[in-house]
From TrEMBL:
Start and end residues of each stretch annotated as Disordered: 113-143, 184-206
Organism of derivation: Absidia glauca
Membrane spanning stretches: none
Pfam families with a match to the protein in the record: PDCD2_C
Entry superkingdom: Eukaryota
Boundaries of every Programmed cell death protein 2 C-terminal domain copy: 272-390
InterPro entries per record: PDCD2-like_regulator, PDCD2_C
One GO cellular component term: cytoplasm
Stated name of the protein: Programmed cell death protein 2 C-terminal domain-containing protein
Biased composition (Basic and acidic residues): 113-129
Length: 394
């Protein structure tokens, strides 16, 4: 890592930057954020249906691009986001060649603590009732204090990765008690079977999956005041930078990133302007591989219209932006090299075109705003989420 700057970060955006290779022997921790490698599941005995890890275009296994441990504040669940992609160039730009899976496993310690709180609250309320019968309610107002208490936020697992998420979840209201949430789960059960439970595919056998070497990601707040010396290999950016030079750049003053409303205020003046924004922002930390901000502002690679986030397949809630993969992922993971090797092994299958592997400008991840958990609290769950992939223009 480069020496830390003294400037305070001026956004709530977090960045993941490369932080060294993970040996296969060490790559067993679900509570980290990494690129590549095999997926490490929250529960080794519970893996998702195999079609969650297969390309819907060619039917082959996809490669894990990113695994990120991101528990949400006030949630009783451990939470990991897995992002996958097919490494066939011919599958790119087609629906189904990227996939996002969100996994939950209950944090037993946290759950117990919450349940104890619930019981204490109930007791207090009963006492309050009994007391108010005698017309002396004073002394029990303190019971209201518990609702805002977040002291149980620390996990017993020694979690790292995105555990430093700074923004409080807007989806889980402080006033909503665990009992209420569990109550909702019961209601959910009476509704039609959620898609997660409908899967008939056998669970994936992790060792069957192909994988890239894996790389730790270090999480750091974005500092848009920062200018860098471009310490890393920028060869893959060169064509982008050339494009940028050609673009009209006299109307951007710079330094106003945090306040810009990309979607709402952007006039359709062409993709160059959006692309320049993308590259200017990346220049603050060229090695960034992921950007993370729950319900935050996506950094689009090109102008886009409409809402691509959609609704959660499992509960119907709207999805919100959570994170995105940046082009530097493609210089860290040997996608082209692996695709070429595969082509040598199976020349007949990919004769129609040179397979140079996957490509993307950015992969925007949208997730269920409710962070829903279909099924029993104690089940480890896998819910498919949405990826909006933006590419270089042809
Ligand atoms: Zn494919
Ligand atoms: Zn949902």
């Amino acid at each position: 890592m480069a020496p830390k700057q003294t400037n305070a970060p001026n956004t709530t955006m977090l960045l993941g930057v490369p932080d060294g290779a993970i040996s296969a022997a060490d790559d067993t921790d679900p509570y980290i954020t990494k690129l590549g490698g095999l997926p490490v599941w929250l529960d080794n005995d519970k893996t998702p249906p195999s079609d969650y890890c297969k390309c819907r275009v060619c039917g082959e296994w996809m490669y894990l691009l990113c695994q990120s441990y991101i528990p949400l504040p006030d949630s009783v669940y451990h939470r990991v986001i897995y992002i996958w992609a097919c490494n066939q160039r011919s599958c790119m730009r087609k629906e189904g060649s990227f996939s996002v899976v969100r996994s939950h496993m209950v944090d037993e310690g946290y759950l117990r603590a919450q349940q104890q709180k619930e019981e204490q609250k109930k007791k207090r309320e009963e006492q309050k009732k009994a007391t108010s019968g005698f017309g002396t309610p004073q002394g029990f107002q303190l019971g209201d204090l518990w609702g805002g208490n977040k002291s149980f936020g620390s996990s017993s697992t020694g979690a790292t990765g995105f555990g430093m998420t700074t923004k409080t979840s807007t989806t889980i209201k402080a006033t909503e008690t665990l009992a209420e949430r569990l109550g909702k789960l019961q209601i959910d059960k009476e509704e039609p079977t959620p898609p997660a439970a409908k899967a008939t595919e056998p669970p994936v056998i992790t060792s069957d999956l192909p994988s890239f070497p894996s790389e730790y990601l270090y999480i750091t707040p974005e500092d848009t005041e920062r200018t860098t010396g471009m310490e890393i290999d920028m060869s893959r950016y060169q064509e982008f930078l050339n494009l940028e030079t050609a673009a009209d750049d006299d109307e951007e003053g710079g330094g106003t990133w945090a306040n810009e409303q990309y979607e709402k205020d952007q006039l359709p003046r062409g993709v160059d302007k959006q692309f320049k924004k993308f590259m200017d922002r990346v220049a603050c930390e060229p090695s960034q591989c992921i950007r993370y901000e729950w319900d935050g502002s996506p950094l689009f690679y090109q102008l886009h219209d409409g809402n691509h986030a959609g609704k959660c397949d499992a509960c119907g809630a709207p999805r919100v932006y959570e994170m995105q993969l940046m082009p530097n992922v493609l210089s860290i993971l040997p996608t082209a090299e692996y695709a070429a090797q595969q082509q040598k092994q199976e020349p007949a299958r990919t004769l129609e075109s040179m397979n140079v592997g996957m490509e993307f400008g950015t992969v925007l991840v949208y997730v269920c705003k409710n962070d829903c958990h279909p099924g029993d609290t104690h089940d480890t769950t896998f819910v498919k989420e949405s990826a909006l992939v933006q590419f270089e223009l042809d």
